[in-house]
Design goal:
alpha+beta; four-stranded antiparallel β-sheet; 19 helices; 10 strands; 50% helix; 11% strand; globular; disordered N terminus
């Protein structure tokens, strides 16, 4: 008989009791000892070892995130674990631990569709993270060198550098394969078979299967999960790599050059005819062998100078090559800036500038590999113009505009003339009067982060 995991809310938060990562062990769950009574050693016991669980707890705590269906927050984990740690460990060892269904969250996609995310409870996230920390080192040596997503020491920048290298070698055509709802369509039986080829501890395999079968709660109703690895769980990235490694090996056995980042896969060939042939064979393999669905509308065979991969595209510069953000990535960036700098909002300018700074730092950090100095300069001026527009809108009345223009050094007569101007906000934002009053130096003094300068520093240090 299966007993449900108890994850009732604890009544207090013990933030001050959490030790730092530099500690020998997190005091918060230091009592989660896991040695077998008979001294036996197993992979499950490695997962449930005190140090591994402490590390998993700290990772989940540091990452934060929204609560699952039980509404327990990361701050409430510690009190819960202090009270229920023995019962939790006993249930996992005994086989009656039952993960709770994940909470369904839909994230809008740029193309207008929805991406389904699954949010596990914080306790389930901790156990999943503990599993990942033990299984990842076991599977890492078995993964392809051409796989870059969700792996230690690997990232999207390395993937793009590899793509650039292939192009320079003469592989000027790319097969860009798009898997339709990949994380929602992974076949459980095939995945478990892949895991069982490497992992012999059936308790661990059963635990992984329980997470796969935990179900999804949508609008208060629990739906069973017969396929897929809910995107959003700590286990999902590792399981996705395990599943697609067979595809990597198939391509390598045929001598193909590929770059894969999670479910985004590009295969580089020398001609359009070869690209179309590879597209056909890959589609057949993915759909027949791995039971996945290839999105025929989004999958393309063409030039990497035009197609988007991980938000980037390649481009020719003279006799050389370069990496730049794809046009769609730039448009997505601008749309986000438009929302952050909307003149209709009533937020104080410093608040707007701080939110703008946080977003642009993250965006530039990801795209710092790209060659885009001139693009950053033009975007920089465009953002400043939007900020000046907010100022003009918030000053509202002619009297306020007159006083602010005078305060910022505009002569009285000119300040009076412009304060009554009937020009639209966007035109005024690019006028000499606001360039002279709301100078670049003034905007910097109140918190504007110059994205052109920041990019140059990041790109130089890359």
């Amino acid at each position: 008989m299966l007993r449900e995991q108890k994850t009732a809310k604890a009544g207090c938060c013990c933030e001050g009791m959490l030790e730092t990562e530099s500690s020998n062990g997190a005091r918060s769950i230091a009592q989660l000892e896991t040695a077998d009574e008979d001294g036996a050693n197993s992979l499950l016991e490695d997962i449930l070892h005190r140090d591994n669980l402490n590390s998993a707890y700290l990772r989940v705590k540091r990452n934060g995130g929204a609560p699952g269906i039980d509404k327990m927050t990361v701050d409430e984990m510690l009190p819960y674990l202090k009270e229920h740690k023995e019962e939790l460990l006993k249930s996992i060892r005994g086989g009656w631990y039952k993960p709770k269904p994940v909470r369904r969250v839909e994230i809008p996609k740029p193309d207008g569709g929805k991406r389904n995310l699954g949010v596990p409870t914080v306790i389930d996230r901790m156990i999943q993270q503990a599993v990942v920390q033990i299984l990842q080192p076991i599977f890492e040596p078995l993964f392809s060198e051409n796989s870059y997503g969700f792996r230690p020491g690997r990232n999207a920048h390395q993937a793009m550098k590899k793509a650039e290298e292939y192009y320079k070698q003469g592989y000027v055509k790319v097969v860009d394969i798009d898997l339709a709802k990949y994380f929602d369509t992974v076949n459980h039986d095939i995945l478990i078979d892949r895991i069982r080829e490497v992992i012999k501890d059936e308790q661990v395999i059963k635990l992984v299967r329980k997470f796969l079968k935990s179900g999804v709660m949508v609008n208060g109703l629990v739906n069973p999960t017969t396929e897929g690895t809910p995107q959003g769980g700590n286990l999902s990235p590792l399981l996705s790599n395990i599943y697609l490694t067979a595809f990597d090996r198939m391509l390598e056995s045929r001598g193909h050059n590929l770059v894969r980042y999670a479910d985004d896969c590009n295969i580089y060939v020398k001609s359009q005819r070869a690209a179309e042939r590879v597209m056909t064979s890959c589609t057949k393999y993915l759909e027949n062998k791995l039971k996945l669905k290839v999105n025929q509308e989004k999958s393309k065979a063409g030039s990497p100078l035009k197609l988007k991969f991980l938000g980037f595209s390649l481009f020719k510069v003279g006799k050389g090559m370069g990496i730049r953000p794809h046009a769609k990535s730039i448009e997505k960036f601008k749309n986000k800036i438009r929302k952050l700098t909307s003149r209709r909002q009533a937020k104080p300018i410093p608040v707007v500038l701080e939110k703008l700074r946080k977003y642009t730092i993250g965006w530039l950090g990801y795209y710092s590999i790209a060659e885009m100095s001139s693009k950053m300069k033009s975007l920089n001026e465009w953002i400043r113009r939007r900020i000046r527009q907010i100022f003009w809108k918030q000053w509202k009345k002619p009297s306020a505009r007159f006083e602010n223009l005078k305060r910022l050094g505009i002569p009285t007569q000119k300040a009076r003339e412009w304060s009554y101007s009937r020009r639209g906000y966007w035109r005024i934002a690019d006028s000499w009067i606001l360039h002279r009053s709301l100078t670049n130096e003034y905007l910097a003094s109140i918190g504007y982060d110059d994205i052109a300068k920041r990019y140059e520093v990041m790109h130089l240090n890359y």
